[in-house]
Write a structure and sequence with these properties.
about 230 residues; alpha/beta; TIM Barrel; eight-stranded parallel beta sheet; 8 helices; binds D-xylitol-5-phosphate; binds zinc ion
Length: about 230
Amino acid sequence: MRKLPENPSIEIAPSILAADFSRLGEIIGGLEGYVRLLHLDIMDGHFVPNITIGPPVVAMLRPHSTLFFDTHLMISDPMKYAPEFVKAGSNGITFHLEVVDDPHAMIKLLRNLGVNVGISIKPATPVEALEPVINDIDMVLLMTVEPGFGGQEFIPESMDRCRTLRTMLRDDQRLEVDGGIYADNIADIVAAGADTIVVGTAVFRQPCPPSQAVADLKDAARQCRPPR
Ligand code: DX5
Ligand code: ZN
């Protein structure tokens, strides 16, 4: 089973949402050796007002990549579809706290599937809502924009939410952030405690190749010392 990289490490997780979907295989192949995670934004048009890809596309991408498929389920029924994404090649499944009645049952399902377990919260969900489950997961994904679309503005209140979440997590657990992150704010969010940074526009909508954009983001992230 591909595991999340061990902490402490700062990981850039490119989100394919911003990539040219007509060339995904070629694009993700070009990231080999530059990143260790690939962030797959899965949307069902119900939990969020957008629709992206499903298990068949993940299965077709799998042979083109050795990366950890960090699968963000922005869908209303993660219990039903998680097994299909795992079968397709997802290595980590992140579901939204807002859509499950019993997060422990969802965590148990994912543990039985042998994948890394993440829980995500929307900007309006208090971080304290994670307290009942936070010891049982591998990663928290803090949405720093409203889920559904790339290219949005970073929500400033996310910095304090990130700092609070870091104090709630063990050092071996990851704190991932997602949305509106660029070279000019990545150092701040790392200083606030994030160690896994989802970036779509900042990688795939730049004049330079994605590999160069990733290198620039890593340089920018190093401009600070994360809190430990
Ligand atoms: C929102 C998506 C975006 C995307 C990254 O549902 O999850 O946050 O991954 O978007 P940008 O383009 O802001 O990096
Ligand atoms: Zn995402």
